[in-house]
Amino acid sequence: MKAENSGRHRVELLPASVASLVGARLDAPAGTIYVLAASGGVMSTPRRHFSLLFGRNEPEVHVCIGTDDPHVSRIHGRVTCDGTDWWLRNDGQLPIKLPGTRLLLSGQEEVLRGYSALFIPSPTGREYLLEVRIIGARSAAMTAAPHETTRQHRAWELTLDERLVLTALAQRYLRQEAYPQPQSWRQVSDDLNALPGQPGWNPHRAANVVERVRIRLSAHGVAGLTREEVGEPVGNSLNHNLIQELLVSTTLVPPDLRLLGEGDV
Questions:
Q1: Does the structure show a pLDDT above 60 at 105?
Q2: Which of 114, 159, 197, 200 lies in the 20 to 30 Å Cα band around 260?
Q3: What fold, for 4-138?
């Protein structure tokens, strides 16, 4: 579908070069929605009864997702404005995974607010990521006076190797699986070695990369990243606590799953 402009209502296409809606500076009126998949996306200002469609049949939808997967419906779902809120509806056969452990089944609807990372899991083993972000009106509590100190949004800096290993380690969290756990070091190294141009990984090397990140963040005051703090038996606690910090700080985001070479994920 093409972008359109009708009076004050605007619909504009987003190129595939837009990496993620997380942390992006989006200058738009309150109620504007952004929807993004690996192939690109679209933005729309609010308009009552207007729907943004997504699915695998590019000519019929605003956002194309799961293009070559016959399990994804031609029009898999839509996000519709009721004049105040945007509602997600599943029109496809496959469920849509919502944040947390919830599933939106065929025919069901759910109101969306703020940022959401949605997944369509396919029987092929692939999962297709759809990001949605709705611009909200500023409340009094979020209105800063001129003299106030700027509030910092702290995302930690990672090298490419660190982001790659941590994405492999945290992939179950990034896919929003129920009761996620960190991947084993053996599985992390196997996943990395399967990527083009990434030979020579082993469990010890992967663990060393993550340990350096834990030590660095612990030195900056992040709690729960040392054996002394957690106590024995440690188990997966250190990696779990590290992953939680990286997710909360938006250092790791669902689009990082693309680093693992999973196409539309």
A1: yes
A2: 114
A3: Tumour Suppressor Smad4 (2.60.200)
Residues 9, 22: Cα–Cα separation, whole Å: 24
The residues, any chain, with a CB within 8 Å of residue 113's CB and separated by 6 or more, are: 85, 134, 136
Joined tokens for residue 57: 């049949």
Eight-class DSSP state of 183: P
Indicate whether 82 pLDDT > 90: yes
Residue 133 class from Cβ within 10 Å (0-12 exposed, 13-18 middle, 19+ buried)?
buried
Q: Judge whether 130 and 65 are in contact, CB under 8 Å.
A: yes
Q: Which two tokens stand for residue 227?
A: 């054996």
Per domain, the residue ranges of the chain are 4-138, 160-260
Distance CA 132, CA 41 (A): 10
Going by pLDDT thresholds of 50, 70 and 90, the confidence category of residue 210 is very high
Nearest to 178 by CA among 97, 264, 89: 97
CB-based contact 183:206 (threshold 8 Å): no
Cis peptide before 233 (omega within 30 of 0): yes
d(CA 108, CA 103): 9
| Contact status, residue 53 vs residue 62, Cβ threshold 8 Å | yes
Phi, psi of 93 (to 5 degrees): -85, -40
What would the pLDDT profile of 158-197 be if each residue is shown by its tens digit? 999 999 999 999 999 998 887 889 999 999 999 999 999 8
Prediction pTM value: 0.69
3-state secondary structure of 142: helix
